Amino acid sequence: MVEHKDIQNPKDYSEKDYQRFDYLLFSDDTPQKELEEICMMLAHLPTKEAKDLLEKFKNSERAGEVDWLECAIDENEFNYLSPENDQEERDFLALKMVGEKDDLIVHLLGECDKHEYHIQKYEIELAALRELLPENPDLDSNISAIHDIIVWEKGHLEESGQQIEIEEKIKAKIRASIQTERLKNLDPMDIEHFHFDGEE
Question: pTM of the entire structure?
Fold first, then answer.
């Protein structure tokens, strides 16, 4: 049977413990009940070793014997990522902000696409109007209006491009400020389900 230590204190588990869990999880001789006990224990351990072991077991032949394995993996992910001190809390928020900057940049890129699309359309129309102008002098005001719209669109396209550059630089600085090792290279999508007090 698995020896139950203080589940709240990951320091109680040594590398040898994880090696034993690894052996038991992948042994044909381990009873199903013991597989479940190990997975439950790993779910509550906020360590990379526990996280990696659960992910490894997920792809094993015996994974189907633990019906709630996905829940155990999700719970472990939550425990592993949850901040434990002020610095980690700050870094956690910084990582969320990186994700928000990503969303803003995607939105701005979409705005750039719209401006470029409108510019192309108006330039085609402008070329057609100019060809018709010799026979239709009254179209001069239409040409002037279309020209102004193109200038307006190009101005907004430039502004959006400049804002993207600034947001990319801000995002890079925020990412670089993260000191918590397990959060440094994490995708902000991995913490989407975490919410801060005061967050809408």
Answer: 0.70
